[in-house]
Design a protein that fits this description.
Layout lengths: L3 H9 L5 H22 L5 E7 L2 E6 L5 E4 L7 H8 L4 H10 L5 E5 L5 H9 L4 E5 L3 H13 L5 E4 L2 E3 L3 E7 L19 E9 H7 L6 E4 L5 H6 L2 H7 L2 E5 L2 H5 L6 H9 L2 E7 L2 E4 L11 E6 L4 H7 L2
Length: 309
């Protein structure tokens, strides 16, 4: 498709007369502004702000403002444009489960959607957002600043089962799929050296009692939890995590290993359906859900009684 600059250059070179230039600019480009204006009411995106050098979208329901990197097909506001909202049923359940004034770890924060959601909607939380990819981290910081979310602290490293440097695979169209395994199997994926720590070490060093962990690290979730066993035993935080068979297979394990680990620590596994929790004992080939909540059978007994269907 011809770009704005290319159309302008055609006019400046004399290839397009002024009337032809005006008509072509409007028909090929400017008219899309009004198309979006009509389309937005069907989505959670309330507004799109085109700024000098950036695009910022604002959530209708939550008021979250997010700067969107050019070329990223899957960032939360773009997902809302495509599918009306972003993981709304999980977001609603998270807001029921995160305690006021709780300490939250957002492991694999990407550009900050869940950190900002909790910061805006749950009073008094202290949120630590972990993101190892440099470009993604820069947008995380930018979005924290855009939302004046002083309760969110960004950390430029990931969490795993040991302290080390890892090679991550990154491609701009899907920053959320960045992983220490080449999930996309793209030969042009960018290789980035990133640092990872253990959740237990970070929590202990900062004297933190953790109340809620969101973990989405594109297949490496088992390793993040292996590095958090001490915290899980001591603090019994509620856990929200992605578990995908296809991504776990890239790391030579099955998501059931996560379930076994957390069950051994006293947890029960659930997914959300509407306003309720439905228990999952084992992931099979028939399991279609990808996001799961782990609640401790004793520590969260009242929540389980309230929400379990």
């Amino acid at each position: 498709m011809t770009s704005l600059q290319e159309i302008r250059d055609q006019h400046l070179s004399g290839a397009l007369s002024k009337p032809e230039y005006i008509r072509k600019m409007y028909q090929l480009r400017h008219a899309q502004l009004f198309e979006y204006a009509k389309y937005l009411h069907e989505t959670d995106v309330e507004s799109i702000e085109i700024r000098d050098g950036s695009v910022v979208m604002t959530s209708r329901k939550y008021g979250i403002r997010m700067a969107c990197p050019e070329g990223d097909h899957r960032v939360a506001p773009i997902e809302s444009l495509n599918f009306q909202n972003y993981e709304e049923k999980d977001a609603s359940m998270i807001l029921k489960l995160v305690p006021e004034r709780g300490v939250v770890f957002d492991v694999g924060a990407n550009m900050g959607w869940y950190s900002l959601l909790i910061a805006r909607q749950v009073q008094g939380c202290q949120i630590h957002a972990f993101e190892p990819i440099p470009k993604t981290y820069s947008f995380l910081v930018k979005n924290i600043e855009l939302n004046q979310a002083s309760s969110v602290t960004a950390h430029h490293f990931g969490l795993s089962n040991e302290r080390k440097d890892l090679t991550f695979y990154f491609y701009p169209e899907g920053s959320g799929n960045a992983s220490s395994a080449n999930l996309s199997e793209r030969s042009d994926a960018e290789l980035i050296n990133c640092h990872v720590e253990r959740l237990d070490d970070f929590a202990n060093a900062n004297n933190l009692h953790v109340d809620f962990i969101k973990c989405d690290v594109e297949g490496a979730e088992l390793f993040a939890f292996q590095g958090a066993v001490e915290t899980l035993k001591r603090d019994k935080p509620i856990v929200f995590t992605e578990m995908l068979r296809k991504w776990a297979a890239k790391f030579n394990y099955h998501p059931n290993e996560i379930i076994v680990l957390l069950v051994s620590l006293g947890y029960r596994c659930f997914y959300t359906e509407g306003k309720t929790l439905i228990e999952l004992h084992e992931m099979t080939e028939k399991t279609v859900e990808t996001n799961f909540f782990f609640l401790h059978a004793e520590a969260h007994q009242s929540l389980i009684s309230e929400l379990f269907n």
